[in-house]
Write a structure and sequence with these properties.
The structure holds two protein chains of two kinds. Chain A is an all-alpha fold. Helix content of chain A is 74%, strand content 1%. In chain A, α3 packs across α11, α5 runs parallel beside α10 and α11 runs antiparallel to α12. Classes of the chains: A mainly alpha, B alpha+beta. At the A-B interface, α8 and α9 of A face β6 of B.
């Protein structure tokens, strides 16, 4: 028995040796920073230049949670998440079902719908700004349309909160859509044709085929998109910058990640402790939502 | 329900870049299936048997020809209005639904007056499940069932609406050998109990022969022969049918008829009447050889395979088309494996002659 015990120890050692490179890299660049951020978030008044701090406690959290800019950022992020994730997934589903039911020029349309994915977000933001922005010389394309149909022009970029939020949501949906369409069209095409034939023989109506066969079949992919969509939307930052510039607090369009960035490097920056606390809060929020998502999906996704 | 196919043809557009010739999968097929029979559509892969089945089901539209169920012309009807049940090769059970929900699915599609009440639906589902004996699996998911059980569920789902015609596409190909034997008897039993006209597709001649009332042998989209299994086996109309049926397959030789005698190489193996002098293909069933010391037909012995029930003698002959000749003989004969040569006499009704050109059967009388 001793002999086999020793040989198993030896093979254990070997397997750890094989794992070592991965463990080293992940530890140095993922686990250590994570722990470090956690530690920072409890060190009050940490100064990165002198590497000193006053004490340990939860003051950083209480500061962040009482900061109106942070609360604004949380509100913005939640609105963004709640509006864009279901809408973008739903619209992507509609478009992919449409795409997979047409035959001629299918590939061309698929390419067209995928194009935004390979376009730079900042460039897209610029185009959106031109479409929506109201200047002294022009009302912008969108306002032109609104006034044509008899509405009043709205200043989308510097105007009321809901208008700015509308542009941000519109932009976010537009940017995330191609990836979702790509995933969903491939999921739809991987559903075995025999199921549809079987349903046809049984005289199943189109709507029933979609709700009782297609949707359950691709439900794992839909939930994957919803979960990654939630995570992605919670981490939104560049979208807001692309539209409203770097001073997001002034335009009331800041997101949680934007707040963290501002705390580190922005004009009001230099507070790594507050940034760490906000980052940990974001982590907790995303973790909670993802757990809820997984719980629901394990109940709804059947196979 | 009597099923009639009239000049049924299906062409698929060619895919080639230069040669865009249509592929004719089913070519002018005409036959009639009597009410309440079990029919085996038999042929090698690519012979058009599955296409024929899909034409009958309505999943494919024929390029020409008509399909009649009884007196009704169903050629232009969509599948759901034909009153058919279809069992797919891979069963196509919905993986997210339980067995019960799967069987219930076709009933729930019914609308208006045709839709049974909730209790009736339950009753029908349990009737269908009882027919294939899966009542104790009703709350399982298809993924938790064995291949044979999935097959039964698929049949129950096809039967629950009491179709006029039941269609089975390669029903046994996904089962292991033992289960295959069992399931084919099961299909036979279910068909007998329900009396539903049933058409099934297979490439396995043994499967088709064993349970069919009639078999339809197809090749390259053309029906080669239709008839009762024994009749087709005993009287193949051409070389293809003769070679396709039977296990081990028929031995084929190049021979000639000369002055009322059949020659294989230099040996006159059979006296016959009614066949003109010419070159022929000679088909001899493995059971058509009789071990005889002074027999007229000699072969070079290469080995003996003992099967238990009988013995396979594997030998070589110069005029054989195949590399080896296989003869099946009873176990009461001793084969002396020391000898290099072995001699047979032939059973005349196990010997078939075919034209060298057309490969059609040449009839003869043995003397």
């Amino acid at each position: 028995m001793r002999k086999s015990g020793r040989s198993s120890l030896k093979s254990n050692l070997k397997s750890w040796l094989y794992l070592l490179p991965a463990i080293l890299f992940l530890g140095a660049f993922m686990v250590y920073p994570l722990i470090d951020v956690f530690v920072y978030s409890f060190e009050e008044g940490y100064n990165s230049a002198s590497q000193t701090y006053f004490g340990v406690g939860t003051y950083n959290y209480s500061y962040v949670l009482h900061d109106p800019y942070f609360l604004q950022a949380v509100k913005n992020t939640f609105i963004l998440v709640i509006i864009t994730v279901p809408l973008s997934t739903g619209i992507a589903l509609l478009i992919s079902v449409g795409l997979s039911s047409i035959k001629p020029l299918k590939n061309l349309f698929q390419t067209i719908y995928f194009l935004p994915y390979v376009t730079n977000t900042l460039a897209v933001g610029l185009v959106f700004m031109i479409l929506f922005k109201k200047t002294a010389y022009t009302d912008g394309f969108v306002n032109l349309m609104i006034t044509w149909f008899g509405g009043n022009s709205v200043d989308f970029m510097d105007g009321p909160y809901w208008a700015k939020m509308f542009v941000l949501c519109f932009y976010t949906i537009w940017v995330v859509m191609p990836f979702k369409i790509l995933i969903l069209t491939s999921a739809l095409s991987s559903v075995n044709q025999e199921y549809y034939n079987a349903a046809r023989v049984d005289g199943t109506s189109g709507l029933r085929i979609f709700t009782r066969i297609t949707l359950p079949m691709i439900s794992p992919m839909i939930f994957y998109l919803i979960i990654t969509g939630f995570i992605g939307a919670f981490k939104a930052y560049s979208d807001a910058v692309a539209l409203f510039g770097t001073n997001l607090n002034a335009s009331e369009m800041n997101t949680i990640v934007g707040y963290i960035y501002d705390m580190l490097y922005g004009d009001s920056g230099g507070y790594p402790s507050y940034a760490s606390a906000a980052a940990i809060l974001l982590f907790v929020i995303v973790l909670t939502i993802t757990c809820i998502n997984l719980l629901i999906s394990s109940r709804k996704v059947h196979y | 329900m009597e099923v009639t196919l009239q000049n049924l043809t299906k062409k698929f557009p060619g895919r080639g870049r230069k040669k865009r010739e249509d592929v004719i999968a089913v070519n002018d097929v005409t036959f009639k299936i009597p009410d309440g029979e079990l029919i085996g559509l038999l042929g090698p892969s690519g012979c058009g048997k599955s296409t024929t089945l899909n034409l009958i089901s309505g999943l494919l539209k024929p390029s020409a020809g008509r399909i009649l169920f009884g007196e009704d012309d169903v050629t232009d009807l969509p599948p759901e209005n034909r009153g058919i049940g279809l069992v797919f090769q891979n069963y196509a059970l919905y993986p997210h639904l339980t067995v019960k929900q799967n069987i219930l699915f076709p009933l729930q599609n019914l609308k208006g007056e045709a839709r049974p009440s909730r209790e009736e639906m339950q009753k029908k589902v349990y009737e269908a499940a009882g027919l294939v004996q899966i009542e104790d699996l009703m709350d399982r998911k298809p993924g938790e069932l064995s291949g044979g059980q999935q097959q039964r569920v698929a049949i129950a789902r096809a039967l629950v609406k009491m179709p006029r015609v039941l269609l089975l596409d390669e029903p046994l190909s996904n089962l292991d050998a033992r289960l295959r034997l069992q399931t084919r008897e099961e299909i036979r039993r279910i068909q007998r109990e329900t009396g539903i006209t049933t058409i099934f597709v297979t490439h396995d001649q043994e499967e088709a022969m064993s349970i069919s009332d009639r078999i339809v042998v197809m090749k390259d989209g053309i029906v080669q022969q239709i008839g009762r299994p024994q009749q087709v086996y005993d009287n193949p109309e051409n070389l293809f049918v003769a070679k396709f049926l039977g296990n081990p397959p028929m031995n084929v030789f190049e021979g000639r008829v000369k002055e009322g005698r059949l020659y294989l190489g230099e040996e006159a193996v059979l006296n016959l009447k009614g066949a003109a002098d010419r070159k022929v293909y000679v088909g001899i069933r493995p059971e058509g050889f009789v071990l005889q010391e002074k027999g007229p037909f000699s072969c070079e012995l290469s080995g003996v395979e003992v099967m238990g029930r009988d013995i396979s003698v594997v030998c070589k002959n110069a005029s054989s088309v195949n590399p080896t000749v296989r003869a099946v003989i009873g176990t009461d004969h001793e084969v002396d494996t020391e000898n290099d040569m072995i001699r047979f006499s032939l059973v005349s009704h196990k010997v078939f002659l075919f034209d060298r050109e057309t490969e059609e059967r040449i009839c003869f009388e043995a003397e």
